[in-house]
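Researcher: Please generate the 3D structure of the following complex. Treat every line as part of one assembly.
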Amino acid sequence: MSNIVKNNPVVKAILSSSRILVLLVLVIFFTAVTKGTFFSYKNLVNILYSVSLIGIMICGACFAVLLGGIDRTVSGNAALSGAIVAMTILRGGVGGGNVALAICLGLGAGILSGLIHGLILSRFNIPAFLLTLATNEILYGFVQLVTSNTLIYVNGCTLMDYIGQKRWLGIPIPVYIMLVCILFAYIILNHTVYGRQVYSVGGNRQSSELSGVPTRRVILIAYIISGFMGALAGFVLSSMNQQASAGQAKNYENNVLAAIVVGGVSMRGGSGSIQNAILGAFLIGVIENGMNLMGVPAIYKDMAKGIIIIVAVAMDMATQPGTPLYNFMKRFKKKAA
Amino acid sequence: MSEKNEVLFEMKNIEKIFAHVHALDHVNFDVRKGEVHALLGENGAGKSTLIKILTGVYTKDGGEIFMNGKEIEINSRDDAADAGIAVIFQELSLVPTLSVYQNILLGKEKSKFGFISDKAERNEIQALIDHYGFPVKANDIVETLSVAQKQMVEILKALATDAKLIIMDEPTASLSSRESELLYKIINQLRDKGVSIIYISHRLEEVFNLSDRITILRDGKNAGVIEKEDIVPSEVVKMMIGKEISESTASRELHTSDAEVELAVKNLTHLGYYYDVNFEVKKGEVLVLTGLVGSGRTEVIRSIYGADPFDKGEIIFEGKSIKPTIKKSVANGFGLIPEDRRTQGFSPLLSITGNVAITSYDKIAKGGFVNKADEDKLGHKAVQLTDLRPANPNVKVGDLSGGNQQKAVLGKWLTRDLKVILIDEPTVGIDIGAKDEIYNIIESLSAQGVAVLMVSSDIAEVLRVAHRILVMREGRIIKEFNHGVATQEDILLASSGFVNEKEAA
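Model: Done. Output below.
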């Protein structure tokens, strides 16, 4: 490779990020096996569309993970928000004022849920995994209460139809919503004091506290953002489906966490980026879509997803000093040399 | 009596060399049967090296080791255990959720076809406990026990393997005084049963009370062996230190003796930690709180900073009584260099800039947004002010050496307009060169008029940087020395609750 190509910033970025490289290889592979179907405009838009919901949730859950916590309630918040929006519209009609009220109530429920989680997790030493595992079940209980455990159809709501059906430049609206969320998370994490505080608290809460960082407030805000993003995803999901149900978005939290881990965000907190977490979502999305096109049975798709997660975690461990895998690689490299 | 004086264990002419440094130079050391033998020496005198050789962590470079008169080789921990030598670890190595007897027999369970007779094990261990008269039960779950009781389980673990020589390294460091008393009783009981104990402690008072004999090391050499009846505290201390250190740094005087008081505390009390603490720190003054670990020094400065509460008394900053919180303290121009930099001082994954800037966003951020150029300026400033190496503010602090990590922590505060800096054990685990640089930083802060309140156990360090020294003991200030007046001996004796006879006379 000539130096001009090597020094090109885009080429550099691709070569330095193993994830982009893997993504590229996968795209070429699937394009080849599907004789080009994979790389068609229609299919690429499909991938974008299928990743958009998870992408929105990642923009919230990522904050919790960067703080060394975890938020499994993104799915519960989404389901609850979708259900509240649908019920409010069902009861009060599709008038503009009522739709606005519905959205406020739906997103408000997510913010409230985040506030409660944030208050608990910033003040008490409870593992976030356990708390949100439990409260996610409670949230799904609320969803059943709101929907009376039935499927609720929303018909004739202009805004939801617009979000669910309309395309700009051939690309569905949810993709744009995801992009706005990514931009929001990116700016917060990279250009604000709050973002710096998130990385600092995630890296060492005690030292941050002694440096004057309001650690409790930092944690509280993270879960509020996560609650909001979950609720927003729920509203978008209901718009896509024109309906809400007691089981909607179930298990999405696992896909969200899988994407974050595949994206190389450390589960111990303090390192990782929103770009890479989203990249993780695309890696998983591309594999799912590619295998769909190839006609691979569902069981093998799940297995492949599991293997991808293991490989991603192994790749991260191999670059972190002190882990057995790192030591192994070092010995391996020495032998090779 | 003849049996009592029988030598159990002997080390002769032990040598250990690390990269041309003679860590142990022909050291002799012996322990009799049923004897408590203390090993004394300052940090770096060779105590831990000697212990590591006799427990198989290091191998000796020269000399001989005898057990019961027979020469033995100790090349591994297993060799040491086979010889009947056991260490009571400072960091307790027990499984908290298991019972006492399960812990004691861990890895040594006797099984028949893979099955264990629980009852037989329990009874066996209860018999062992009864034999030595320890206040624990075989059935107790370890996590419900006090620290002292956990130590007893560690001791029982050693005894269960027929250990004849038990090494206790700072066993009372984390014990309350009542728990310590309990441990002393246990030690005496063990001695009466014929167990030999090597005892290491910074607390001279307990060493003098417990020991049958004391071996003193200095600079890797034998400095003396003293029988119980010949112990004179000030003589022992002199042997540990060597020649009396003259006030080598007395030249550095406080030019601001008429400076105004920046910080004062009056009758400050945090029940259970410290009581009726009074002192003033002037602008540009370096006041050092010294004494033993656990004497309440760290707790005092944490209360002043607002990181811990206090019960009674007053904290006065620039003439006004304040109720500190960390946020207010930072805004007031306070800074804290915490006791354990790894857990409290920095975020290892963040760069030097990332760590330094976190204290200063009140100054450099606009409307909640950060400006990368301003942050970088701050990072460079910190690197420059502390002479950090590598001189690259983008390096992760976790990748730096201990001394440079501490400089990064200092950089957090040096880049701000400081009025008071609270520094807790700044040079623990730092090499000599970096230590000196940190002292220079402290001195330059003092020269700029910053009030420095420092906690340190390193007496050479205390003498080097302090304008004034307060000695704390069991939560109270018991002695004050002005600069150039105190010697190492004075401070060591005061910390342990002794009066220097010279002075008393």
